[in-house]
Amino acid sequence: MRLLLVHPSALMYSEIFLRLEPLGLERVAGAARDAGHEVRIVDLQVTGRRELAREITSFRPDALGVSLNYLANIPEAIGLAHAAKRALPDCFVFFGGHSVSFVAEDVLEQAEGSVDAVVRGEGEPAVVPLLEAVRDGGVDGVPGIVTLRGHGPQPRMLHGIDSPVPARDLMRHRRRYFIGELDPCASIEFTRGCPWDCSFCSAWTFYGRSYRKVSPETAGAELAGIREPNVFIVDDVAFIRPEHGDAIAAELERRRIRKRYYLETRSDVLLRNTEVFQRWTRLGLKYMFLGMEAIDAEGLDLYRKRVSPDDNFRALEVARRLGINVAINLIVDPAWDEERFRVVREFALSVPEIVHLTVMTPYPGTEIWHTESRRLTTRDYRLFDIQHAVVPTTLPLDVFYRELVKTQAVINRKHLGLRTAVGALRVLGANLARGQTNFARMLWKFNRVYNPERQLADHRRPVRYQLPLPQHLSDVGDRRKLYVHTRAAARRDAGQAE
Ligand code: B12
Ligand code: SF4
């Protein structure tokens, strides 16, 4: 069958700092192609709607799948589904991905028949049975499927993540993927899932707190096949198991692969496994995101981060000693007042690291979606991108955004301060010489994208599609109720695989 896979446009944050290849979609494409289907991918993060329209009319797909890792992309995806059905009424249109797995029924209803099905959970084990069922008629028995008629069997989970190989070769604009100065940049997955259970995050609920590792040989072979000199490691928390990080490092040393890497990890993991991170600096580890989330113990407890402020500060020292550039993430609570923003600005200016701010957002799949006692002020999907306030702010909303953007701008100026600007110009020169302009554009775009008036105006847009209402609970009780993939289903699948 002919399958067209689509990734929606970039969200606000990605307009500036980064834009990365849709690895999940490439893996779904890989699985379908391995089974003999003809597959194409259009990534609207890096290309326009015209290219998509051209593909629909020239390729004439039998099925079209849209990736919805982000809630904020849902209205756009419904629009794409309507357009696809208008152009090709017989084409089977389906959605899949992280966020849509938590709101499948609502989205199907909102799409009013333009979306035939939503696939909950991992896409690789579902896509081939789905395409076969579409061809033969009757998709209701496909694991993970949800249609307007109801739910199919529980989503199936891959036993191991060594295959399928992501279909990176299908991406036609690979040079447009970058993160900061790592331009161009590819992505890779070493592990899947997260064993922690932070209250604001849905990474653990999606995978049912499971954790799987790629074999070092597969990681080495994949990296050897990646042409880009820079690689973003998409793992939620890199190098939780030191022996795994070491084994991949040994494989790269054996293959003499050296690239520049960006990864994301936790402070306690960096403190515990410092030697692994050190070994990776020799292989090219240059940047890391550290999800600090809060600078005080009270905030860390609230988010159930299970680290102390002291761990966080010690981790920063370790990273500095290893020569790794760190971007810290802090969660802004809509309850913050001007004084609180001032304290955070002071903190951000006092450390050499880049500080990123995200706004505390309860969204489906997270525990705080159920337990947050403040009422939502909006249910517009587009505002659930952790850059907008969706619960009442203590400050008037316009003042809140002014403070938020002022804090981000101060940090950005520091990031591009004189010392960094000299470094940035050097990198810029080298990138431009190679025809890479993503990093250059990022430097100039900040004020246009991060703008309090723009953020405020986003709240005034007419709303067509809304999130469902949360049930308000003081405690979710058995947290396994939040899972997309359950261990029981995984055990059953593993049994079937043996
Ligand atoms: C890597 C990552 C990123 C990367 C790259 C994302 C990209 N280009 O796709 C970067 C750093 C750019 C990023 C940015 C953001 N991210 Co992010 N990101 C992740 C992370 C850690 C892993 C995603 C990943 O690549 N996994 C590996 C691949 C193989 O899996 P996958 O993409 O999930 O795909 C699988 C399934 O979802 C499914 N699937 C996916 N697509 C499709 C399509 C079809 C048709 C089917 C059938 C199945 C299917 O099958 C795939 C294979 O199993 C997830 C957390 C997580 N563990 O999922 C958060 C996460 C998805 N991000 C999140 C957020 C909030 C953001 C930002 C909004 C943050 C910000 N500060 O603004 C931005 C917005 C980015 C944008 N689109 O513009 C939230 C989503 C929240 C929400 N409900 O909307 C998550 C869940 C993290 C969290 N803490 O809760 N992110
Ligand atoms: S925030 Fe990080 S450590 Fe916490 S559950 Fe999510 S991925 Fe895991």
TrEMBL record:
GO biological process, one term: methylation
Gene Ontology MF: a single term: methyltransferase activity
Cofactor(s) for this UniProt protein: [4Fe-4S] cluster
Cited CDD domains: Radical_SAM (cd01335), radical_SAM_B12_BD (cd02068)
Residues of the Radical SAM core domain: 180-393
GO cellular component, one term: cytosol
UniProt xrefs under InterPro entries: Aldolase_TIM, BchE-like, Cobalamin-bd, Cobalamin-bd_sf, Elp3/MiaA/NifB-like_rSAM, HpnR_B12_rSAM, Methyltransferase_Class_B, rSAM
Positions of the B12-binding domain: 8-141
Keywords: Iron, Iron-sulfur, Metal-binding, Methyltransferase, S-adenosyl-L-methionine, Transferase
Name of this chain's protein: Hopanoid C-3 methylase HpnR
Lineage: Bacteria, Bacillati, Actinomycetota, Actinomycetes, Kitasatosporales
